[in-house]
Amino acid sequence: MSRILSAVAWPYANGPRHIGHVAGFGVPSDVFSRYMRMAGHDVLMVSGTDEHGTPILVEAEKQGTTPQALADTYNRVIVEDLAALGLTYDLFTRTTTRNHYAVVQEMFRTVHKNGYMVEKTTMGAISPSTGRTLPDRYIEGTCPICGYDGARGDQCDNCGNQLDPIDLINPRSRVNGEAPKFVESTHFFLDLPAFANALETWLRGRKDWRPNVLNFSLNLIDDMRPRAMTRDIDWGIPVPLAGWEENPNKRLYVWFDAVIGYLSASVEWARRSGDDDAWRQWWNDPAALSYYFMGKDNITFHSQIWPAELLAYDGKGARGGTPGVFGDLQLPTEVVSSEFLTMEGKKFASSRGIVIYVRDMLARYQPDALRYFISVAGPENQDADFTWADFLRRTNDELVAGWGNLVNRTASMIHKNFGEIPAAGELHEVDAAMLRQSSESFAKVGELIGTHRHRAGIDAAMRLVQDANRYVSETEPWKLTGDRERLGTVLNTAAQVVSDANTLLAPFLPHSAQKVHETLGGTGVFAPQPRIDEVTDLDDDSRHYPVITGDYRDVPAWASARLVPGTPVAKPTPVFTKLDDSIVEEELERYQAR
Description:
About 45% of the residues lie in helices and about 15% in strands. By secondary structure, it is of the alpha/beta class. The chain has a five-stranded parallel β-sheet, with helices on both faces. Strands 4-8-9 form a three-stranded antiparallel β-sheet. A hairpin with a 2-residue loop joins strand 14 (about 340-345) and strand 15 (about 345). Helix 2 packs across helix 3 (about 65-85) and helix 12 (about 365-375) packs across helix 13. The longest helix has 30 residues, at about 390-415.
């Protein structure tokens, strides 16, 4: 057994999340975490809503509310949506907790003490009309390196180079299109070049990463420069140094504080568990494994900035140093980045109505239908396109007519002919071959999920479903009513394969997995679901918020479990809902009406 940290990207709390977001961080992390628990590992899956930064201020002003009230609203929306999708967080929290503030400030103090926070005066961008600081990502212009018109103030997505807003040619604000004004301001910069050697050594030791992630990360080494970790803003975590902490207009940059959420969420989880130091088993132990899940636009933060912060805290940069009270914090085992999901050939853009919100999707369709589409056709290692026609086809042809049909026809024949799981008689070679294939699928599918090849993993599981449907068609149990022993053997074999396939598909399709388990007469929890708890801030009794948590210990083993003859099997009901062809036109009309 290994300890596995599933560190899941923090959705930003300035609005509801769309299906492109959960395709990148949500479903892949949950499939992996569910599988790892079933394989016997001790998993800690953490995340929360990212609630600081200028975009929150801008949206709050637009809605006529306060930043905290806005964050409270969307924190709850996001919590409800992710829980409904079945994402099994041990703790999904938020970055406005007092615990998070304390962890971030401890990280800053130690990084500063170790000499990796450099104070310098720079040119910062502000909005001429509002006087408000513009975050790097809210400034666009032409890249001075490759000429791409649409580069952001922190990075050019075309050539991958890091930038500063002042580097851009013809910079403009994404908020209102005006040209930013650049003024002098003093800030703390994380001295990234001091970690160039350590980061390169670490990255070159990563042999199993997705090539696009590793190559992009290695390319960042060539253009490492100090990055500002404070901002002129009044919404964020105070800088914990004398002369700075009292300044209401200087705050730690969200770049610094958000990634620390993985650690602070782990600390909060431990404190809520009754063992304040339990988090250390995932963070201080070199044998523990950690996997970070996000979309490709967040690679820089997870393969450069966060590892640099960890190295700085540990005192493992060019200047040396010693760790603080958190001890020696381990670097990520793997940064698991997905590409982008588009919608009907266009990039998701909530502001332009090119969007399908998770909440709207789950209000009209089964959560496992969405999880299936993301798993089998999502943006794992290349951009993928969501179309309603493809969603309809995959739901009806693969889930309903394939997997759902196998479950229903098998359970229906067992209920009609025996009323219980029949005993198997002498196996024919066709039966034995089917059972061998079913049993051998566990190693294959497990290896694919464990190495983040989820599309291949669910394809392999669905091939077993296809072959099991073929087995039932070829053995024709409906013609065996005069041979009870042979009929029982065929239906026992079919039921066993259904049970095995259900275990293989449980990480992908947990809602239906529970129903299939019960259809075959199973009792108790088969695929645990998360729950939402209303909690009080551990360090401020006046603050309350919802968290996603759950007890996920009661899971089936990742292996074939023999069905017990005599287990009652009731008349089944359909597992999946068949979609009418009209939904394609309806959804496209709904989208075009925005």
